[in-house]
């Protein structure tokens, strides 16, 4: 059973399922995805909360301001002066309130990148935001590279063990005799998949996700 538990090259059994499109399948395995990947769609939650930041001047003689858009930041900062009449130019960007608070905190936005949130990230689908969080917070990509790779991330809404078991069952179980199936060690399989970097589990919000092509990203 050792050979069964070590799914060498499990990445070859995983199709690139992205939040926005399905890329060509990996050779030899056909368009095979886990059932949970096929069903994976996170609905964008409606909310009346406006994302608001606070621009805290590094100049201690100036008072900061709130803003909720790139245009508002540009307008307020353009005419911003301190109590001595000097122009204020540099700010620490602090999150005030947002539905995307966990994601924004992971992005570590600053004065040079906060515009990207409003221009590129705020209106992303919920599934794209999950992928972006993984790339920045778990895979340590910089923001620009993470945005470029969002479509490459294959995500399933379950634990790593469940994802590994489902991939194994869909790819190999039909070729294994019934008398042998009860001896498959799914715990060891999941551990090997994690140690080999094929699968990666993470939490975002209140949900657990597994990236099924972690070694390819």
TrEMBL record:
It holds the Pfam family ArdA. It comes from the Bacteria. InterPro entries: ArdA (IPR009899), ArdA_dom3 (IPR041893). This is Antirestriction protein ArdA. The lineage of its organism: Bacteria, Pseudomonadati, Pseudomonadota, Betaproteobacteria, Neisseriales.
């Amino acid at each position: 059973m050792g050979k069964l538990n070590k799914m060498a090259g499990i990445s070859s059994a995983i199709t690139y399922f992205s939040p926005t499109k399905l890329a060509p399948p990996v050779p030899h395995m056909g368009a095979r995805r886990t059932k949970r990947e096929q069903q994976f769609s996170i609905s964008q939650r409606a909310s009346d909360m406006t994302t608001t930041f606070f621009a805290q001047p590094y100049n201690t003689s100036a008072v900061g301001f709130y803003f909720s858009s790139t245009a508002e930041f540009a307008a307020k900062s353009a005419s911003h002066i301190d109590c001595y009449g000097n122009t204020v130019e540099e700010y620490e960007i602090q999150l005030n309130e947002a539905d995307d608070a966990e994601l924004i905190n992971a992005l570590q936005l600053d004065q040079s990148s906060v515009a990207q949130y409003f221009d590129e990230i705020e209106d992303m689908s919920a599934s794209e935001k999950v992928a972006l969080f993984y790339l920045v917070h778990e895979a340590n990509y910089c923001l620009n590279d993470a945005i470029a790779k969002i479509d490459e991330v294959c995500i399933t809404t379950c634990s790593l063990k469940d994802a590994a078991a489902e991939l194994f069952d869909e790819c190999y179980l039909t070729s294994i005799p019934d008398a042998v199936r009860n001896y498959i060690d799914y715990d060891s399989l999941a551990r090997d998949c994690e140690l080999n970097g094929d699968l990666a589990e993470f939490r975002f919000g209140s949900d657990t996700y597994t990236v099924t092509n972690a070694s390819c990203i």
